[in-house]
Amino acid sequence: MLPDHDLCSPSRLDLRYFCSGSARMEQQLSGTGQSHIPEYTSEGTRKHGLVQRYRNEIIPNEEKLGYDVQWILENVWALYEPYTEVPDHIIVDEYQIDLTDLGISGGKEGCRIDLLIVVPGRKAVIVDYKFGLMYVSRPKYNWQMKAYAVGVFRAFGVSEIEVIILQPNTDEPYQVKTDFFYAPEIDGFERDIKAIVAGTKAPDAPLVRGDHCTFGFCRARDTCPLWRDAYLALPVHTTVAAHLKNISPEQRKELYENVVAAKSWCEKARSVVELLAINGEIEIDGYEVGPGRKSREWASSDEVAGKVLDLAKTRGKECFPYMLKSPAEIEAELGKSKAVKEALQPLVIYKEGKPALKKKAAEA
Predict the structure, then answer these.
(1) Residues spanned by the domain of 183
(2) Which residue of 6, 19, 35, 294 has the fewest C-beta atoms within 10 A of its own C-beta?
(3) Is residue 212 part of a domain?
(4) CA distances (Å), 55 to each of 110, 115, 126, 128, 346, in order?
């Protein structure tokens, strides 16, 4: 059975460029239950589907698309509208290109261009939607876009390729990134991509830790020794402050990055332990699953409005707009005196928090 995506699919090439050994690490996770698709990935897939669905349809009034999907649609409509009058034009959603001769199989879902516009023999426009918050390199520095350009150039024989990245959830100056590619550049892209893919297949492909581990969404980061063993490089024979004064600036950089890596790995490990315990998949001696921290909310909005306003007046304060504030915010304005707490108590209800892993109380 083909995987959904090749280990060197276009979207993974940036990570493989910086760390060729990451492909081997991710391959070792396959079938172990450790490799998973993060929630933000499935949310991005849902939004891509909405753009594809409504690119040529009228959006029903009751459909709430969200700002980012609506923004993408408006920009896409503006992009392809000029081409609709061009003879023999092609406009395709989710166009899957063939990159097998580069060593990239594509799988069932890989090598898909979000939107492709082609004027055969002349020009192609590749449009890619990014719904995430993280920084995305502009096309001329982006290996995913370069791979798409190689596939489109060979499939349609165009002389110019315009590549546009649309990212609504970032700062305005970076929401639209555009570059143009031409034949001489694309030949170079093809050679470089083949080299990246070949590098990942080497038995001794090196592991490299850096920002790409996060920005490239490496799924093997939790098991990578460069992250997992980072705490082993931390000083144990002296205080951190004393150690920092006796090492070079370069060593301080390495120490700080090890601290950050160790913290990241430990936080992820803790969340996995808690999730398995809460789901009943494991037991931990001395711990149990109990209700999480309670939260407060207003019992009745109709009743709260007048009573909170009256309470504010008795204390010589103004409290507007009280209906938009939580019980904690009202306390912050009116104080936490016994009189305030007694007045608010009948207006508040307590909600149990989500289940949490807690240490068992010591037995008497």
Answers:
(1) 10-200
(2) 294
(3) no
(4) 21, 10, 15, 14, 51
